[in-house]
Specification:
Oligomer: single chain
Structural class: mainly alpha
Strand content: under 5%
Largest sheet: 2 strands, antiparallel
Shape: globular
Distance between the termini: 28 Å
Helix content: over 70%
Length: 350
Amino acid sequence: MTAVLSRDAQERTQVRGRARKGGLPPRMRRVAAVNELWTFLILVALVAFFTAAAPGKFFTAYNFTQIGVNASIYLVLGVGMTYVIITAGIDLSIGSVVVLAAVGAGLYNIHHGGPASGWTTVGICVLIALAIGAGWGALQGALISSGKVPPLIVTLGGLGAALGLAQLATGGQDPAGAASADLQSTLGYGRLFGVPWLVILAAAVTLVFGLVLARTRFGNHTLAIGSNPAAAQRAGVRVGRHLVKVYALMGLLAGLGAVMWLASYGTTSIAGHSTDNLKVITAVVLGGTSLFGGRGSVLGTVIGVFIPAVLTTGLIVIGVQQYWQDVAVGLVLVAAVYIDHMRRRTRERR
């Protein structure tokens, strides 16, 4: 079978080669090849800036705990989006899929005990949310792979369709009693050794799928498809089937995000997820995953998720209006895409 190298692997090889020619020591060569390092330095700079701008207000245990909790759902979504973008795809529907999965689980909970429902009902609600998310993602993946419809168009249509179905099912209003009190008291507000369960769950998802991307054939095939789908096909990778799996994974994690949202906020928040795609794509691209496919890592996404989270919290602490926070996140996304584009052009010139 013909070996299919990802763009990430090629880039790292080129960087190491240039470092050797420049006579850099081995440690500096490794540093030069790590994209995530630069993203991490940006995160550290933001923390330092807000710490200096608001002494005693930003750099606190409470603030960092809240940042972790607020970022946990977007981290889970970001892991799925990392896989999608590595294949040179995009998923604009994730916010609506979160809403649809939350509505499906919430309506079942309402009709089987409401806030007083037991763990059996909670378990079924979780399965419903995961099934809705995975099913919706698989459907979009099938349209993209078999119908040859661009991911941008499929998921843009999915954004409207999923939200429309959720609104039809609820009349456009958040139903009362959508979350179990048991789910909220444990996953939503519970802690293990002082660490919120939401953060622990997000960390577990990140670790598992980070290892899958870096160490398994599924991860190698994902990188290969994003690097060169034709070459991957010739090497024996079933590109269409794999894309269905990748989008199903994105939907599955959106369903899990819906469960986490219900646990944390106790409501479906039908109107509260319109910018989820912006936040998640920003985080993934900031983490070094290329919008042109073939390069990326879950570790980079972890760092990328915390940049908007720290930015938003820091702006709140120093008293910047909420509307400017959205502007800042949007500008960060544009800057990240521009930098990614320039890096790609530089590689092509070599």
